[in-house]
Design goal:
Layout lengths: L1 E5 L4 E5 L10 E3 L6 E3 H6 L15 H8 L6 E3 L17 H12 L5 E8 L2 E8 L10 H17 L3 E7 L8 H19 L4 E9 L1 H4 L8 E4 L10 H8 L10 H6 L5 E2 L5 H13 L1
Parallel strand pairs: 7-8, 8-9, 9-10, 10-11
Antiparallel strand pairs: 1-2, 3-4, 5-6, 6-7
Length: 281
């Protein structure tokens, strides 16, 4: 016999003795609306088996995917953003930082480490969209710059996984300065002839695209990722005409020479290992 439990909004019905399904157990693919249970989707690395849509991964998930088990030495976990401008819109920037840190357990929108991909020691940094849209503020720029300097000092390859909505408006011009800062550090890495592989995921936009994300010796993109500076709507309104089909997708950028490889996430580790072997010769 069914029993009923009245809430403030609507009436929920369940069978007596039936266990409730926890929130987040069922996940819908954003590409085709196919529904998976959490365990099933996790086993496919959050890649849809029906349409191949790549759901977003967090920074730690990428480290677990790419680095040898137990080899990751996390760096700079104690560096945190402040609120230099006292910025406030619907809520204060300080409150946004606190909420994002509590939600993600990260100090900011990037995580960096030194670890191994097979036999290759690398300096790696990965952005995380869950932290204020992966936006690049002073701390993100600093941590990316430190990852670059670490690769330069240790004379090892650099890998950066980009995932960002662009510059962090709450820090004003300070966020824009990170574009020059990261690019200048990459110049030092290049001078020592050390390889830099950029991995572009969905989305990679704004000031991140306009700086370190597009400066790799090799640019790899995940399938279907949105990659660009301004959004399609802004560009359409600026130039006053419709955009080509698939504009700013990984596939469009590869066709026009901005991306070297499009790699399915399930093959990303083996592809990076192969490239590192090739670059070491």
């Amino acid at each position: 016999m069914a029993w009923f439990h009245r809430k403030d909004k609507g009436i929920l019905t369940r069978q007596k003795g039936q266990q409730e399904i926890p929130d987040g157990y069922w996940i819908k693919c954003r590409g085709c609306t196919q529904v998976y249970n959490h365990h099933e989707f996790k086993n496919t690395l959050w890649v849809c088996g029906k349409c191949n849509f790549h759901m977003r991964l967090g920074a730690e998930d990428y480290f677990n995917l790419l680095l040898n088990e137990g080899s990751a030495e996390l760096q700079d976990r104690d560096v945190r953003s402040t609120d230099p401008l006292g910025f406030k819109d619907r809520k204060s920037y300080a409150d946004r930082l606190q909420a994002a840190a509590a939600k993600t357990k990260l100090s900011d929108a990037v995580l960096s480490a030194v670890g191994f991909i097979e036999d290759h020691k690398v300096s790696i940094a990965c952005m995380d969209f869950r932290f204020i849209g992966g936006s690049m503020g002073s701390v993100v720029g600093e941590l990316i710059a430190r990852a670059i300097r670490r690769a330069t000092d240790l004379e090892i390859p650099l890998i950066v996984i980009a995932q960002s909505g662009g510059a962090r408006m709450m820090e004003g011009a300070l966020s824009l300065m990170q574009m020059a800062k990261t690019s200048a550090n990459l110049t030092r890495l290049h001078a020592k002839k050390l390889p830099y592989i950029a991995v572009l995921t969905n989305p990679t936009t704004g000031g991140v695209t306009a700086s370190f994300a597009m400066l790799g010796d090799i640019a790899i993109a995940e399938p279907g990722a949105l990659i660009g500076f301004a959004g399609p709507r802004v560009i359409r309104e600026t130039i006053g005409q419709d955009l080509p089909p698939g504009f700013q997708s990984s596939e469009f950028l590869k066709e026009h020479g901005f991306v070297d490889l499009i790699v399915d996430r399930r093959h990303l580790r083996s592809t990076l290992a192969g490239l590192l072997r090739l670059l070491a010769e």
